[in-house]
């Protein structure tokens, strides 16, 4: 059984770039690595409905914090069997976002901190009721809000299919979400957490992660 590792962070933090670097580093050592990104746009009807709502469609869906959270949670529930198969067939499964992103954004939209009811509600829904696999390690890619926003703007200019949504345009929401992420990492919510910065070297981080998990999970061969 493989280990489940998650990269978390704000929109525009650079999760995709860091994930690609980690995969390259691990595969170079002979490990088998599978990847999955949430939300699964273009694959999951729930993810697509959520994305459309954040761009003004489907009436007042986007204004309902719980409705949006449930769409993201249902996307993961539908991927649970595939995720378990990936874990059975690979040494490492690396996710670009997972349940913690739902906890962070839902709490931030409510103006709650990590101790508020939103985080516990997300935990109960996704890990309790939907029985999603718990992560073995979560990595918070922490970058300044202004840098993440600039990256998101640059990405939108370069790729018309990745235009910024309501969440990405709300600097206040991004700031609050970052604060909840920090608290989740400090509390090691649902797993051990480590924090990486915007200039983190992917190869060095891959070695650090493997060393952290080696004793308990057998990441290295």
Structure characteristics:
alpha/beta, five-stranded parallel beta sheet, 221 residues, Rossmann fold, 9 helices
How is this structure best described in words?
It is globular and about 50 Å long. With 221 residues, it is α/β, with parallel strands linked by helices. It has one domain (3-214): P-loop containing nucleotide triphosphate hydrolases (Rossmann fold, 3-Layer(aba) Sandwich), CATH 3.40.50. Helix 2 packs antiparallel against helix 3. A five-stranded parallel sheet has the order 2-3-1-4-5, sandwiched between helices. The protein is 56% helix and 12% strand.
Topology:
Elements (H helix, E strand, L loop, with lengths): L2 E6 L6 H14 L4 E5 L7 H9 L11 H25 L2 E5 L2 H12 L6 H13 L7 E5 L3 H14 L7 H4 L1 H17 L4 E5 L5 H16 L4
Parallel strand pairs: 1-3, 1-4, 2-3, 4-5
């Amino acid at each position: 059984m493989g280990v489940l590792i998650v990269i978390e962070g704000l929109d525009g933090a650079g999760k995709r770039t860091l994930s690609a670097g980690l995969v390259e580093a691990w595969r170079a050592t002979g490990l088998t690595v599978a990847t999955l990104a949430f939300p699964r746009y273009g694959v999951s009807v729930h993810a697509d409905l959520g994305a459309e709502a954040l761009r003004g469609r489907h009436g007042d869906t986007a204004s309902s914090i719980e409705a949006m959270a449930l769409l993201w949670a249902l996307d993961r529930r539908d991927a649970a069997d595939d995720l378990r198969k990936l874990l059975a067939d690979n040494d490492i499964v690396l996710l670009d976002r997972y349940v913690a992103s739902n906890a962070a954004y839902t709490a931030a939209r409510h103006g709650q901190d990590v101790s508020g009811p939103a985080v516990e509600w997300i935990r109960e829904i996704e890990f309790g009721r939907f029985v999603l696999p718990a992560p073995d390690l979560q990595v918070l890619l922490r970058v300044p809000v202004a840098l993440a926003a600039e990256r998101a703007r640059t990405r939108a200019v370069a790729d018309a299919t990745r235009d910024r949504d309501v969440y990405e345009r709300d600097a206040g929401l991004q700031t609050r979400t970052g604060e909840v992420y920090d608290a989740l990492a400090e509390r090691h919510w649902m797993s051990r957490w480590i924090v990486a910065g915007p200039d983190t070297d992917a190869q060095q981080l891959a070695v650090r992660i493997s060393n952290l998990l080696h004793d308990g999970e057998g990441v290295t061969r």
